[in-house]
Amino acid sequence: MWVDGMTYESLGHPALDYFQCRYGTSKMLFRGPRRQLHDDYIAFLGGIETYGKFIELPFPALTEHDTGVKSVNLGRANVGIDAYLGDDSLVGICAGARVTVIQIMGAQNMSNRYYAVHSRRNDRFLRASKMLGSLYPEIDFTDFSFTRHMLATLAGTSQEKFKVVEQELKDAWVARMQSLIQLIGGKVVLLWLANHAPGAPDTRSEPLLIDRMMIDSLSGIATDVIEVVARPEERREGFAELVFGPLEEPAAEEMLGPVVHRRVASELASCIRAHV
Question: 45, 120, 150, 249: which has the fewest C-beta neighbours closer than 10 Å?
Fold first, then answer.
């Protein structure tokens, strides 16, 4: 299930201008151009697909076109729930939106009882707790910089021990998502966007560790849940439309692509029109 994947962020001069910007008092950079927050808008939270890496018109922009309601793209690569929960400015922006769309993020990039992550760069592993050190005394945790690498090592060392860590992450994820939805307070649509269904076995792709039971546990407080599973032919067809430089091709191959984004936007637009 686990692989020690690279984190693709800065691979030379980007071929696509993302017009990066900030909102409110947040220290995080988001895809622009920056949008004004008066009038109606839809807020989008999520990972690299929400951000729209290598895509000229990612699904937040396409949803704006389809609904006529301005989109505010607050997606970021390698983000976790903690980055949003810890940023009052971003929570306030979502609370003021007509609808907030949350792309479901993996459970690995959160601080928990076993380890801590960076407050904004949630994929960055900071330190193990005494509990994790006691569970895995054979591992030197100073060797790790990223959560995925660390968890891959834990799983490879002992599947039995890893189940304990995995359950902690799943429980923490549900609790944090409940907190985030309740803090936003308005209409929240959850978006599953991946190349596999929730809980598919032996997956190496995001969102990690999320199963259908976890998503179903949020259905009572979320306005709606949309599930989009990218088909291989959609990804192949969309690859030709991606915009990337010579050094970025390996990273671009990991993206779901514009064809999938167009399907996401169509489904989101139908959902939003039904609820606003």
Answer: 249
